[in-house]
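job 3f2a | input accepted
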Amino acid sequence: MRVRVVLAALIALAGCGPAGRPPSTLVVWAWERPEDLRFLGDRAEVAVQTGFVELSGDAVESRGRRFPLKVSRPPTTALVHVQIDPDRPLAWTPALRARTTAAILHYAAAIPARRVQIDFEVRASQRQVLLDVLTDVRAGLPPGTLLSMTALASWCDTETWLEQAPVDEIAPMLFRMTEGGEPLRRRLAKGRDFRNPKCRQALAVSTDTPIVRAPPGRRVYLFAPRSWTEADFETARRQVGGWR
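job 3f2a | predicted structure (244 res):
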């Protein structure tokens, strides 16, 4: 079932930030809950969760968005959340792989967005599953559609397998990190960067976690644990920095 949302393209922020640096581009995540984001205007883009896919044993369970979304301009990103049922051993067969890809592409096409984002957190033993999904989704997307993925921040600092990910953008998540993530947070706060160059185009922060000031020129995805308000958005916007 196609997702019903109020549509139209959000304009990315243009111009230059402080001291002539290019500004960051804000992207507000609209997860599975009622959201009224009409207050955003052209101050940020919207990435809307359009589908949920769960791999359970040798089966795929999927559904579309269940809650209304109101925006003044269409979302620029369709996000599909994928997860693996921890209670059933995954049977990653060619048939299951094909069904998974079909489900993701179905929900990715629910809105006419220029970017598709896959949110799929995996264990070390499941990395190939994620890479398979990204490879197949990339092959199935219409020409010109960008592919993005979220990533644990630690993946961008200590792992090399991300080099195989066929994506245009990786958004490391700088929230809900373990204690091992604090050295990374401190390093970024001092103006340094992720060790993996592929992770230097975007990042993700949350309103309920201390926000690291974003390096200029990044796409910054904003997560909130509750439905967005204009006040919450403005607070996060100021904390991220890099604005005109």
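job 3f2a | Residues 1-22 have pLDDT under 50 and may be disordered.
job 3f2a | closed
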